Amino acid sequence: MNAEKLNINQLIERCRRRDKSAQIQLYRQYYKAMYNTAFRILRDEFEAEDLMQEAFLTAFNKLNTFRGEVAFGAWLKRIVINKSLTQLKKNNRYSEVKMEVVSDDAIDTGMNLNHELLGVENILKTINGLKDNYRIILNLNLIEGYDYEEIATILNYSNVNVRTTISRAKKKLQQMLLSENPKVSMYGR
């Protein structure tokens, strides 16, 4: 067991005993990543900050349910994502996935965009320009690293719906990137 994992486990144990300094240390270690996760979903700095604070309070109060089967950061991120999605639903800013018709021949799926020419910032900006259901599902998959099954559980969708939505969201993203950057070369088949 490496020192970092031991340190996290020690901090968690101290937090379970309501040790305020351990809670502050754990907060400092994870707050940036959790804020970024909330912000990518909510797209509002103040709301993301409030929600992140609330998520940490929930985590500290429910620490006895953390069994260590997954990394603490993954457990905490799940709380942040669930709270973020609940917040969107509460504010009527997110509805169930509505499938958008994107013709299969609109984009030749055998071709890939040259991501290096587009740049990460441009791709992230374009993802943020997608409608909420596509933006959220791509953030969960491409940025947060959740697989289809995990996303299905988080969003309470079927695996088929998640796969279809991710595929359509990627096609829509590719369409938008091509329309905004028509000179970007394509490669591969």
Task: Please describe what this structure looks like.
- The protein is mainly α.
- The chain is built from nine helices and two strands.
- It has helices at 3-16, 20-42, 45-61, 72-90, 115-118, 120-128, 132-143, 148-155, 159-180; strands at 112-113, 186-187.
- A two-stranded antiparallel sheet has the order 1-2.
- It is elongated and about 55 Å long.
List the helices and strands and how they pair.
Layout: H1 3-16, H2 20-42, H3 45-61, H4 72-90, E1 112-113, H5 115-118, H6 120-128, H7 132-143, H8 148-155, H9 159-180, E2 186-187
Antiparallel strand pairs: 1-2
Summarize the structure.
The chain is mainly alpha-helical and 189 residues long. The chain contains 9 helices and 2 strands, in the order ααααβαααααβ.
